[in-house]
């Protein structure tokens, strides 16, 4: 069969590449054409447009590149019609992909499948109307989305497991834990490690890292190790480190997680990854005008939590310090609990196990591929 996939960022490229590999196993005759990235290209098929030509973040960049964005949408729509695939598979990236879904539904007979559903439970819930109208099958990687889509909105979906489970499991199987080797390879001290995961964007790093360093530096029996984002130059980190004693390592985030005793983590997939590596953590996310954001969060946002760990568990497993609650004093207090209070650590680790049970075992891309083939053959 012919599969047309569309992603708009690095994480989508990663998840789509695994899905494509699984589809090739289930369908040896699979042909791929895609708006995607290098990882998808490595699996095989035709890369029509790289996601780096699509990804504009923030109001001003989007406004400045409207002509390019519309040209890319037009090119994508024309290419889908010309190639006439058996299915269009959209991966996250709802701003672009929901427009494509609308076009494909209205102008063709090609089914639209959505892998990694848009997070409309957090914001823009009105998009459920577009999804019901334009998406034939929705594949979820978060178990609580089943109740949201099916229970609240009466729209059936397929929960296939979470690909982060696959990625962490595969890493652990391929890399047995050897802390002494990790310390030697990176010229670290012979001390337990506090990992700092300060985000992958410059603004996140600027806003979060200085206070994270101040808080973690209060524990001299531990060494601080910062996971460097691949898109950020070392010089940028140096601007925000100041006099703090911290080691930056690039390209080893999972390896760092494997050997860390605790972590300060900005919100995002990293919170889930840390939980799957069984690292006690504190979630920290600074925002400007913190009191205003805290008010909006309490009174307008439709979700109780910002971290995937707590959303999946449906309870506060890890402490979330967001907006005006993200202070050096609060971070130090929470770090002290997970470093020095055995009861607090063991309770968090036990909750991680329950969360992992909710996610289910590894195999999300394989489960999704098999379900897609089953539906297409009908």
UniProtKB/TrEMBL annotation:
One of its GO terms (biological process) is lipid A biosynthetic process. GO terms for molecular function: lipid-A-disaccharide synthase activity; phospholipid binding. Its EC number is 2.4.1.182. Keywords: Glycosyltransferase, Lipid A biosynthesis, Lipid biosynthesis, Lipid metabolism, Transferase. It is an enzyme of class 2 (transferase). GO terms for cellular component: membrane. Signal peptide: none annotated. It catalyses: a lipid X + a UDP-2-N,3-O-bis[(3R)-3-hydroxyacyl]-alpha-D-glucosamine = a lipid A disaccharide + UDP + H(+). Condensation of UDP-2,3-diacylglucosamine and 2,3-diacylglucosamine-1-phosphate to form lipid A disaccharide, a precursor of lipid A, a phosphorylated glycolipid that anchors the lipopolysaccharide to the outer membrane of the cell. PANTHER family: LIPID-A-DISACCHARIDE SYNTHASE (PTHR30372), LIPID-A-DISACCHARIDE SYNTHASE, MITOCHONDRIAL-RELATED (PTHR30372:SF4). This is Lipid-A-disaccharide synthase. The gene is lpxB.
